[in-house]
Design goal:
2 helices; YbaB/EbfC; 3-stranded antiparallel β-sheet; Nucleoid-associated protein KK060_03680; YbaB-like_sf; Ybab, Chain: A; 111 residues; rod-shaped
């Protein structure tokens, strides 16, 4: 028989864990590099850019376009890694609480 009270209790626990996971995303760090490490960017688990490190040899006016391209590439790599980390965090946070339903994607709940 379906126990509605038990299900409601489970949902509250799931919500609490999701909130905790969302809060933890700000603490996660992912780094992306391009140009053989000449440009490094760091994003958090919410895919917010929090740091850029540029090799000083790239800071020449004639290298502006190359530098812009390298920054974009590094940011995209870091964002991809952060997305993967966020999905893993969500998976760990809800493990055992939400059944493994094929096609169920909770990544949209990650802020």
């Amino acid at each position: 028989m379906f126990d509605m009270m038990k299900m409601m209790g489970k949902m509250k626990e799931v919500q609490a864990r999701i909130k905790e996971a969302q809060d933890n995303l700000g603490k996660l760090r992912a780094t992306g590099e391009s140009g053989g490490g000449m440009v490094k960017v760091t994003v958090n688990g919410k895919r917010q850019l929090i740091g850029i490190d540029i090799d000083p040899t790239l800071l020449k006016a004639e290298d502006k376009i190359v530098l812009q391209d390298l920054i974009v590439a590094a940011v995209n790599k870091a964002a991809e890694e952060a997305d993967t980390m966020a999905k893993e965090e969500m998976k760990k946070s809800t493990e055992g609480l939400i059944p493994n339903i094929p096609g169920l994607d909770l990544s949209g709940m990650m802020g």
